[in-house]
Design brief:
Number of strands of chain B: 6
CATH architecture of the largest domain in chain B: 2-Layer Sandwich
Radius of gyration of chain B: 17 Å
Strand order of the largest sheet of chain B: 3-2-1-4
Oligomer: heterodimer
Strand content of chain A: under 5%
Largest sheet of chain B: 4 strands, mixed
Number of helices of chain A: 7
Number of helices of chain B: 7
Amino acid sequence: MTALPPFQTLIDEHAADVMGVLRGAVGRGDAEDCFQETFLAALRAYPRLGDARNLRGWLLTIAHRKAIDHHRANGRRPLPVAEVREVAVNDPEPPDGIWSVVGALPPKQRAAVALRYACDLPHAEVAAALGCSPEAARRSLHEGMKRLRKELA
Amino acid sequence: MRAELQRLTNRAAEEGLLDVAYTTTDSPFGTLLLATTPRGLVRLGLPNQDAEELLEDLATQVSPRVLEAPAQLDKARRELDLYFESRLTSFDLPLDWQLTAGFRARVQRAIARIPYGQTRNYTEMAKQAGNARAVRAAGTACGSNPLPIVVPCHRVLRTGGALGGYGGGLPMKRALLQMEGSLDR
């Protein structure tokens, strides 16, 4: 078993990614609350975590669950994400209104698309974050992208 | 992101999830690492010690819930500043001794009582810790002091007055003793 690193390391290395995923998943206005909930839940569970190998995937899994909780709590109201312009500095500007279209995807597809493209996670880590097999993650991503292409065509 | 992280640290402290809080502070000798548990100061890292390694050790030996939280160490930082300005001669900080045990712990607690401006030798420390013949072990206890400066192991010298050793390097030990007036400049 690898020793668990100081929790601060997780914050230093992954906080920006977690925030990126949450902005994609719940919109900018609510991402901050989900961010707090994600890291507090992680901090609570951290000492009992048996495996220190995929801490990023573990954090993103928690973030994903917090995003789903958030949507449940809000009765799946439409997402106010259209105003999000804060993508990483060098990213090309996505087409107008894409986030509201992403936000309208079913939860699994939406999460897969956000993890893969807002956060640049490889497929294996998308799967780990979603808690499903790589094939299922690929499928969600594929379905999501197909739908996006159709919507945006 | 800074505000979010600040809020996170505050909430972690409120919910009792901040097992080890740390910060760094400047000193005339370089950067010091300070770490505290809810019980008190648990580790002080000297400038020549690898801060990252010290934090990893704390994660293993105390709790992996280690967060950078400078506010939790305001008092320790203030007292150290005053000490280095020669405006404070005795620290008033709660200490957490959990990183030490047995004979070493007894030696280190005895070191904590050596007054400012005075020195002892390793033999005296061994005797005070209850085993006059364990002089070498007393030396090891000084060397493994988790709270140097605050627990002033720099005030322990060899019998006859030679400096002995110091985790922060002999120039630092000499400078601390000179600052306290127990060694001629």
